Each structure stands twice: as C-alpha cells, then as structure tokens.
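Z., the sequence and structure:
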Amino acid sequence: MLGDVAVAVNPKDDRFTYLIGKELVHPFIPDRKMVVIADDYVSMDFGTGCVKITPAHDPNDFAIGRRHHLPEINILNDDGTMNDNCGEFAGQHRFIARRTVEERLKELGLFVGKTDNAMKVPLCSKSKDIVEPVLKPQWWMDCSKEAARGVQAVKEGKLRIEPSYYESTWFNWLENIRDWCVSRQLWWGHRIPAYKVVKPCYTEEQWFVGRDEAEALERASEKLGIPE
C-alpha cells in the first residue's frame, strides 16, 4: 500500500466510470496524489473491482504503470525495512509494517475489512524467505535481431521445428521477444565486466565496460577527460 500510485478499474465497469481520471489522496502520504485509471487487466468480478497499483513491487502493476506512465516508487531498503518513501512507517521491517498499516487504518476509521485470498507467494529456493519484487538497475541484451533471424529461418525452411505443430509456439515466442536480463542478482552468477564511476563530481550515472578493470579505467579516462 505504501508504494501505491494509482487505483485501476475496468473501463467497462459502469460502477466506476465516473471516477476515471479523478485524483485520490493517499491516507498516509497526503502529498502523493493517486489517479484513478482504466485498464482491461482489472477483473470486474473479483473483489471490489478496484485494484491499487504498485508499479515498483509487482510485475503486473509494473506493466500497467508503464502503459499509463505512472511513477515507480520503491519503498524497500535492501535489508527489508521500509525506506523514506513510507512516511511514518520508515524504518519498520516489512512484516511489522503490514500490521502497523492495518492498525493505523483502523485508528483513522478507514479500515473496512479483510478476507482470505488464495495467491502465489514467491519463495527463495535457498532460504525459503518471501521474495519481494524490487526495481533495480540491470544490464540487458537486445534479442530482437537474433529472434528475427530465428523466425526467418523457419519461414524459409532453413530450420525445421519438430513436431511441426510447435511452429506456432516458436513464432509466438520469437515475435514477442523481450530483452534478456543478464545481470540477475545471483551470488553464483557470472560477473559483468562493467565499472561504475564513483567520482562525486558526476551526478549522472556513468558506466564503462572493459575486458578488465584497467581497460574500463582507460576508457573512462579517455571519455571523461580525467587522469587514470
């Protein structure tokens, strides 16, 4: 809730069409104006028919946020505590914050109720801890050219898919290809030879790639005009 930036309704839901485009005031962060948006993703038959949108911490909300150009507000520190975007809840552990948010809603007379809802909760394969989606800077590989080559190869008969009925799967996958994230946060993952400039005089983030640190430093020195 602390990362919410909008409330979505289905554009065909007559109950809420009059609210589309209106602004809401966040109960704990009054300076944050939340807009009511219309999106086909929302199911009219599930729950209230209104879905709060937290683009920075949910994959589906992220996609909705990108479609509607919503801000992406991260509310978590790396240690699982709430950050400064959380107002009075800053510093609280994520599980503690869930309880205190509910308590504060009750104090403010805004709590309506809660019901059990079956859902999939991602768990870490090693620690079994609950995984929280968080936006982080990543390195990506553009796969569009390779995907186009794969599509063309099958269409021209240079590559045969067996059994043939999997061709539709092949085309659906490659014609809707996404960039490949190569910088997943895995302790056992391959290191990317990219180095970040940490000189305080540079406010804009600068990265340089090299076969080793010395080569990256040489490239940084040449581009930025500073001695190694």
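The chain has a mean pLDDT of 91. Strands lie at 6-9, 23-25, 33-38, 50-53, 140-141, 180-181, 194-196, 207-209.

Let me know what you think.
H.
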